[in-house]
Design a protein that fits this description.
Number of helices: 10
Number of domains: 2
CATH class of the largest domain: Alpha Beta
Radius of gyration: 19 Å
Helix content: 25-40%
CATH superfamily of the largest domain: HUPs
Oligomer: single chain
Strand order of the largest sheet: 1-4-3-2-5-6
Strand content: 15-25%
Length: about 280
């Protein structure tokens, strides 16, 4: 596995592979890799000739008071895991490499960004769109892989690709979970022992909400209230939001119908967890 830290090194690698006619799969990450990230790399390995993984904690998507500085980092460990998953090139730039000077262009996401996590994190998805755009240009991927745990992020990136005609296929990969159902996340290391024991109720609450919808109770308000009540009773955390929206448009629903996402976020003492279920009802 080749590890590169500068844009010229990366572009040289990409140009060599493109000239050889090889298809490139991109796996963008913020590092502190877990099985979820590795599942993206393994899928990319099966579907492409070359796999490029990026590790970059993007400051543009962190707001004031968020955990940019304390976001977990362990590059030596990440390099070993990336290599084990079949990554061919690992791009690990410093902030100064990606943003050497203030940009004269800013990106603003006008759709799919003001709900769920985006409602209380203004500018977050502008930062996501900016860094993903840069990575698409730098790596020239044929396919790019994103985890569906961050389903709003995937919806925004899919919209970015469609709106700006990027020649890349974006692929959502199902969430990898612990045995008790908790979604794998780099932020799980912040949970106390008691919080970790209660955190799986986040997924259980969502399952309850989906089952309610599938049993024919079509009122979004009723589905959200039942999900919220379960979280309040079992999760031992502050409930940030519970939402039922169309997917990937992320628009409010008059009734539970079509392709939807039931999503929730909860806050523990040092960790904010998100999860969702994407499902269909006719």
């Amino acid at each position: 596995m080749k590890v590169v830290k500068t844009i010229p090194e990366l572009k040289e690698f990409v140009q060599t592979e493109k000239k050889a006619g090889r298809q490139i799969g991109l796996v963008p990450t913020m590092g502190f890799l877990h099985e979820g990230h590795l599942s993206l790399a393994e899928k990319a390995r099966k579907e492409n000739d070359i796999v490029i993984m990026t590790i970059f904690v993007n400051p543009l998507q962190f707001g004031p008071g968020e955990d940019f500085e304390r976001y977990p980092r362990d590059l030596e460990r990440d390099e070993k895991l990336a290599a084990s998953a079949g990554v061919d090139c690992l791009f690990v730039p410093e902030v100064e490499e990606m943003y050497p000077q203030p940009s004269i262009i800013t990106m603003t996401v006008t759709g799919r960004a003001d709900k769920l996590c985006g409602e209380k994190r203004p500018g977050h998805f502008d930062g996501v769109a900016t860094v993903v755009t840069k990575l698409f240009h730098l790596t020239e991927p044929d396919k790019a892989y994103f985890g569906l745990k961050d389903a709003q992020q995937f919806a925004v990136i899919a919209g970015l690709v469609e709106s700006l005609n990027f020649p890349v296929e974006v692929i959502g990969v199902e969430t990898i979970r612990e045995e008790d159902g908790l979604a794998k996340s780099s932020r799980n290391v912040y949970l106390t022992e008691d919080e970790r024991s209660k955190a799986p109720h986040l997924q259980k609450a969502l399952q309850l909400g989906v089952q309610t919808a599938e049993r024919g109770k079509k009122s979004p308000a009723e589905i959200k209230q039942l999900t919220n009540d379960y979280l309040q009773s079992h999760a031992g955390a502050a409930v940030d939001y519970v939402e039922l929206l169309s997917y990937p448009e992320l628009e409010p629903l008059e009734k539970a119908h079509g392709k939807m996402i039931l999503a929730a976020a909860i806050k523990y003492s040092k960790a904010r967890l998100i999860d969702n279920i994407i499902f269909n009802l006719n």
